Amino acid sequence: MTSKSSDISIEPLFNQGKSDGSGAKVTAISEIGAMSHRTPLTITETPQQILIGANKTHMEIQNIGTEDIYVGGSGVASTSGLRIFTDYGKTFSKVKSTFNFYAVCAAGKTSTLVVIEYS
Q1: Strand partners, 50
Q2: What mean pLDDT, rounded, does the chain reach?
Q3: What's the domain range around 88?
Q4: Which phi and psi (to 5°) does residue 96 adopt?
Q5: Could you tell me the CATH number of the domain that includes residue 107?
Q6: DSSP string spanning 7-33?
Q7: For residues 4-26, b (16+ Cβ closer than 10 Å) or e, as one string?
Q8: Is residue 79 included in any domain, yes or no?
Q9: How many whole angstroms separate alpha carbon 116 and alpha carbon 52?
Q10: Considering its fold, how many domains does the chain have in total?
Q11: In this structure, is residue 49 part of a structural domain?
């Protein structure tokens, strides 16, 4: 069995590139504003819309529940969405103010999604 780590540190993600900030693959750590988190969301078989918060440009999600979560557009289903395994997450960087997606579980399943945002 492969072990999964839920220890996510943003520093390694943001300190990539040269010391002058050039060549960075994502936003430099010096450009990150305040983080905010939401109450964990209960995801069911009914697609739930998740919007980026006002003045935020980055979002990280993590599935802390016991079932896989699937994300995508408004018609997302467990057969068509991007799967977020238990204890795994996804980062959305440099998104527009209109950024949104839907999250869903397979029929009869429920899981929990944590959302962190920053600018």
Answers
A1: 101
A2: 81
A3: 33-118
A4: -75, 165
A5: 2.60.120.770
A6: ---HHHHHS-S-TTSTT-SS--GGG--
A7: eeeeeebeeebeeeeeeeeeeeb
A8: yes
A9: 10
A10: 1
A11: yes
Query: Is residue 37 within 8 Å of residue 53, measured between CB atoms?
Result: no
Amino acid at 84: I
pLDDT band at 32 (very low <50, low <70, confident <90, very high): low
- 6: tokens are 């839920």
In a domain, 6, yes or no: no
Q: Given the DSSP bridges, would you call strands 69-72 and 58-63 parallel, antiparallel or unpaired? A: unpaired
3-state secondary structure at position 101: strand
Q: Taking the model in full, what pTM does it have?
A: 0.73
Task: Dump pLDDT digits (tens) for 39-83.
Answer: 999 999 999 999 999 999 999 999 999 999 999 999 999 999 999
On whether residue 40 sits in a domain, the answer given is yes
11 band by pLDDT with thresholds 50, 70 and 90: very low
